[in-house]
Amino acid sequence: MQKKVVIIGGGFAGVNLAKKLAGHESFDVVLVDKNNYNFFPPLLYQVATGYLETSNITYPFRKLFRGKKNVMFRLGELEEVIPEQKKVILSTGEVSYDYLVFATGCETNYFGMENVEKYAIPMKTVSDALQMRNTLLERLEEASREEDPAERKKLLTVVVAGGGPTGVEISGMFAEMKRTILSKDYPELKGAGGEIYLVDGVKSVLAPMSEKSQQYTFDTLTKMGVKVKLNVMVKDFVNDTVYFADGSTISAKNLIWAAGVTAMTFKGMPQEAYGRGKRLQVDEFNHVQQDIYAIGDTCIQLTDPAFPQGHPQLAQVALQQGDNLGKNMIRGLQNESLKPFSYVDKGTMAIIGRNKAVADLPKPKLFFHGFIAWVMWLFIHLISLINSGNRMKTLYNWMIAYFTKDQSLRMIVRPASKNL
């Protein structure tokens, strides 16, 4: 008899699990996602800044699993879990399961700051990236018409909250655009001012990386014109002003929020199932309870001796957990012993700008920076895209951007609102 596996979420973890079970006749797999496409989050900021097209980093689920007879896609959002009946309620109907797997990733965490949530620009989804691109381009157009120098400067000032890889990468991208593109596209803004700030509440950028990577990144961003403010926490965002806990302020219309994420809670799951950051607590086999599992950013596993506080919420963890759970499900049907999950750290990297990046490799413990790290970053991210078509299109756009120091994807596109 087939075992029905329902996977909620089509990110790194969910897709990798579905791929592992694809073709195994013992499993009937249903992949559920609120979007009909998979996307590659590490390159969202390049869509947001007009360096890549949306299609470069997205791919439709139905085409991805075309020909896999035991894998079906279901569009919908999870509304409730009913464990005792072994079924889930979706926005598009009900689905029963033998095994339920949460692979929902995480969402933006605003830490309870209502104005930040309302007025800041998030960077978590494809929709966020497109909204950010439209908003920033519209504000550039508005600045080109603005006659008040103070208002014009506020329109051109960008505050990026969050000193992790996303914050560093987008700050560096803005700095390069300011130097190489804006003066050409907007000659009327020459000498208008406007600053790029990268702010974080911790003492260094790229906190999880080595001190060498942190120092190189800080120095490089500073040389590129980014004003890095550390040990300062955003407190509020009101009337075009970013307020910090230490009493300082920055006048800016653009606050980009890359300062934190949180997992999601689900109706029907008991409160005691959640741990730190609302992440579902799992054992060494990613098991939550009964026939329910969780993988990727949405879970916290405290059984790995190398990561007693839980694994970092990184793509590699999600990929490896999806792979391990799939193998264990196959082992279970074959009455073989299950393999506990153990994360293999393959390193951390971040791009800062053209020919500038940092990379830390754990075994052996190595630090790379500059052009070599930049090439490593490009290669790893290119091969990590979900199919060859995405890789070719992304490489093409990167080559244009590299050799021309420009890109022609800065269009304001807003779908017309129409009730159908």
Layout of helices and strands, plus pairs?
Blueprint (H helix, E strand, L loop, with lengths): L2 E6 L3 H10 L5 E7 L3 E3 L4 H5 L5 H4 E3 H4 L6 E5 L2 E5 L4 E4 L2 E4 L2 E4 L4 E2 L5 H6 L1 E2 L3 H20 L3 H8 L1 E4 L3 H16 L1 H4 L10 E4 L11 H13 L2 E4 L4 E5 L2 E4 L4 E3 L2 E4 L3 E2 L17 E3 L4 E3 L2 E3 L4 E3 L13 H19 L14 E6 L2 E6 L4 E4 L1 H14 L3 H17 L16
Parallel strand pairs: 1-2, 1-9, 2-5, 9-22, 11-18, 12-13, 12-18, 13-14, 20-23
Antiparallel strand pairs: 3-4, 6-7, 7-8, 10-19, 15-16, 16-17, 21-22, 24-25, 25-26
Helix pairs in contact: 1-11, 6-7
Task: Calculate Rg over CA atoms.
Answer: 22 Å
* CATH class call of the largest domain: Alpha Beta
Specify the structural class.
alpha/beta
Physical arrangement of strands within the biggest beta sheet: 5-2-1-9-22-21
Helical coverage, percent range: 25-40%
Give the uncertain stretches in residue-range form.
none
Strand content: 15-25%
Q: What's the CATH architecture of the largest domain?
A: 3-Layer(bba) Sandwich
Distance between the termini: 43 Å
Number of strand segments = 26
The CATH topology name of the largest domain reads: FAD/NAD(P)-binding domain
Biggest sheet, in brief? 6 strands, mixed
Per the principal axes of the C-alpha atoms, what is the gross shape?
A: globular
